Amino acid sequence: MSRQANAPGAMAPLTTVGRSTVRIDALERVTGRATYTGDVQLPGMLYARVLRSPHPHARIRSIDVSKAKALPGVSAIVTHENCKVVWGAGSIAGGAQYNDEIKKNTKQRRYAFNNPVRFVGDPVAAVAATSRHLAEEAMHLIVVDFEILPHVLDHEEALKAEAPSIWPEGNLCLNARNEAQPIAQKRGNVDQAFAAANRVFEDRYSTAFVHNAQMEPRAAVAIWEGDKLTVYTPTGGIANCRHDIARDLGIADDKVRVVTQYMGGNFGNKNQNQDADLIAAVLAKEAAAPVKLEFTRKDDFIGMHGKWPTTQYYKVATTADGGVSAIQLRAVSGMGPYRKNSGTLAGVELYACPNIGTNISPVYTNKTVSGNYRGPEFPQGFFGIQSMMDDVAYQLKIDPVEFAIKNMVRRPSEQGTFTNYSLPECIETGARLFDWKTRWRRQPGSDAGPIKRGAGFSFMAFRSGVGQSSAVIRLDAKGIYTVFVGVTDVGAGAKTTMAMIAAEALGVPLSRVHLVSGDTDKCPYSVGESGSRTTIQTGQAVIEAARDLKQQLAAKGAPTGDAVLVASATPSPRMEANKVRNAFGAHFVEVEADVESGRVRVTKYVTVHDSGRIMNPLTAKGQIQGAVVQGIGMTLHEDMIYDRASGQPLTAGFYYDRIPTHLDAPEIEVTFVEHDDGYGAYGAKSLGESGIVLAPGAIANAVFNAIGRRVKDLPITRDKVLGVLA
Amino acid sequence: MSNKDDTSARDVEVSRREFIEGTSAALVAVTAVSALDAQAPVRAPAISVDPSVPRTTIRVTVNGVAHRVEVEDRWTLVELLRDGLGLTGTKIGCDRGECGACTVHLDGKAVYSCSNLAVWADGRKVDTVEGLATGDRLHPLQQAFIEHDAAQCGFCTSGQLMSAKALLAANPHPTIEQIRAGLAGNLCRCANYNRYVESVMAAASPARNTAGGDR
Question: Structure pTM?
Fold first, then answer.
């Protein structure tokens, strides 16, 4: 990894922040002592299992639980008949942040147990028993009489008039105001621009359902003590999780405690609350005992969400000098039967194009639900537009890098400016480190022999806004600074980053900082680890609490005896009008494609990112490397394939979904160009999602450069490579 | 089994207990006995044994500590380790032999403990991540994993460690390609594969030095 701090006004080096630092909880992670939710054991705890719909669409006529209930050791069974809990964050926000208003208004409620069931995996019943084997046995004794309804899997088919309706309102998703509307955006005059164009290009791209597939299958442990509920659960945001659980169960926030000490990955799949939290809580109440609900890997694959599949139709107009004068995008996103995210697509905004028209239809299908997966709307949108533009560049006989530099975004809007703008620097640095001019084939597919190499590139501007979060710091007489932050550390190292920021801001060694996190009864609000914003937002809160504490210390002196000094901060920074903060990056990839077997292998991968000031280079590097390898999986392997007739998912699980292994991971070279734009914690920008955003476009373009034919549907599997060559 | 090993296993257990107490989870009472003591009492596992299903009392040595324990015949080895013996460092990622999060050593060989029945471990030796350190002294692999930040979320880490240990036992001087092949059965969705490989290379280096090897 290399880092470049850039003139003018090169960043002043800091004492703790910016230095490679071993995680503060590294010992726990390598000794097996780290306690994940599934490791929590409570006295008298019961085990729970969920029975799921085997049909993609069916009405439940009746459920007979009598045999299951008669099994000794079975304590509680819940179904849609005796549990009417709405899982708010599961869909009804219509793609917006779930809130009280939306809960009241929405027509399309997702319950913890639904009738009708709308996908293979929709929960039908849950059982709590004295052991997991007993719970499984009981689950199989539940008799469900289903009336099978017609289903639709493909998101474009779902929009056709003859498609079966998944909701009474139709298959075009409703938004938070119950309106069935595509997501549309307009700038300039697209029609005029196409009429005046020198050349017009049209094409279609598609992306597949990609599962988050985090290693830890979901688990939730719930215990009621009087009217107080404690839920141990893996969530990226304990504050939001608590709020959502309270709202869904109709109890006050302070009657819910959420605890997440360690969690095994998130990638957008463990934000807010989960149905597992609600089901465990309901079972625990019913059984009057603590309940541990464990999802199997299959439960997690079909019952939780992944990235929405898309079909994207682009039309691009160019001028005689190779400028992009208009972009039109019509797209359809398959959301599964509940709208857990907006289903929008990013990417068009990467180009400084005066005329833009986008129209994206999120639609319901009877597949597993779609939602956030690392850079929710970015990797699939960037794949489409950057494949399209790569193709346009070739057809105009312009080097794709030069074409990008000519047409890339320079300001966020006509009036707006970026807080700093390093896109050219990222691209130029990457091209140099990668040796683009040598590795890129001017004539795609021109290598002799069956094993062909080629190079591809993509670039990124990615949201990196500021916002509210909280922190509390307490200083005791021993000189220990205890930092209370509501972060959970999904794996990116948030605990360590927060401790480092505190040490820096307090001007003390890291060893004098203790961190308390992941417990709503102990920690203040934190924004939650989604959207790559923990470092920016909660980090800023830590800095401001530290500033307060230092002032107190100067005024009152160090505490003695049992006395303590306590400081807190809840900054709510906003960007000035017309100021936009983005992270930037560029990826350069070389692949080797075997035109006889269709196999594609990544042979060199160079990344350059401006994520502002890097807090901890040791962990930051891994964020990019890991995200890129996930991107390799999304581009070359992963797909949830369904049997059309039965609606059954055929590839649910690590093996058949083909998530990358050690053998699929080349060395990912990481360079950070660092700038402190004066915002965020010490100039930190978003990082965790960046790596995957760029990978699919860059790899797909490299495949084209190697074989001379373009695979337009992800994933680029062997059959598709052989298909385009045939 | 040497006395030294026995002590170290207990040390690790003690610190684990303290950790569990800190998180208000229930204590798992472990009856540790010498491997030579055939009269070891049968211990009650943390989860209740269903009296209506076939059960077997087995003897198994875990991290150098001998146990006599009654198990349900349907229990997998990972269930015995996690629920029966409270050794939760070994994780269940898929429970069907796809991900390697549950990798332990059975008589020194790396196996998926989700794909072995507990009764198959009768009379055998099991080693888990909790047994890697010697007292407070970390195994070189653990040290390298810390220094190279191999664990992101950490859920697959125990399995990666156990596979890496088996790899280095068979091949103390692996190449990068050999490490990738040796750990191919251990998935990491954080996809921190570069750092795992880097860590194993680093851990293997001191061995090269002492072997007067090819550095």
Answer: 0.93
